Amino acid sequence: MCSSDLDTIRVTGENGTAVALEKESETVYTFTMPAENVSVKVAFKEAAPKKIELSGVKIATDFFGNAWEVSFKNAGGYAAAVTGVKVNGTDWEKTAYSPSAGGKYYVNTSDNKLVFAAKDYSSTPVIPVLKSGDVITVSAKGYEDLTMKLVIDSRAAGHTRAEETDPDRYRVNFIPHILTQRIRVKAVVKGVNNIRSAVGLLDGVSEGVRLSTGLPTSGTVTQQFTMDDITYDEGSPFNGTLSGIFNAFGFDSEQSHTLTLKILLVDNKTVVEQTFNVFARNETDEDGTLTFYIEIVTDRLPDVKPEGDPDSGFDATVDEWGDPIDSEVPMN
To answer: How distant, in Å, are the alpha carbons of 10, 11, 43, 306 from that of 14?
Structure first.
């Protein structure tokens, strides 16, 4: 404690008489001891509250993506000094463990962090987990209140940061970790005008992802997906491309894969099935998503008459019945 923290110092004899003090320096006070016991009472000024700088606030998910962890750089012991947390003006409950629902927070004093649930595992949720737009106010002994407005940004570009929006409120952006990859399949088709609907089946797609590492599991499955984007070539009413897209936990572009297309034609009864051995090329899109591209060229599709066309439908011609005979049927 330095002398600047000293507010008052008083020496009093047993009979209540004040004993005179002499200030020798900023840190030394003296008095003449009377012929009686004395009591010395010292009062210190309350220290000015410290301020947490937003540049030292870091927000990230844990390895499993189950929790938001708010840490404080260059503010050792801050988490231990926290006395309360409010979200949108409502007090949240302090727990002794990492929460799995909204309305609660955990103080991790070892790592100087506050922990909030990012996913709700409660069967009967009452208070939702943190969401974009929530305002968090943290109160801590010896510190000014820290107030932040949360913005959860689904884009992969950028990084987690805190921005001051006004003197009393701050803006924090969260960047969730993307665990899926995008797969785009495009088929060049002659006779694309004959397609009513189509699905694709692609093998070698990872069946899951390890949340602890973000890496796909070793098991694979065959993924079925819709091919519903038809684009005609310029100037052609017959030829074009058929495309589909889906998200997967992982895909090995170094290996050959089997792709099967099942196409229902516009007569609503003819199904064309074609199978291809394919490789994929991969690129990282502008939004940070890893995308695999597969391109194929199909065999020409047969021309059929659309369902409902006067010349389509049930064919009444039967072999070995001879020539047809027109007869008048009397109506009574």
So the answer is: 13, 10, 20, 113
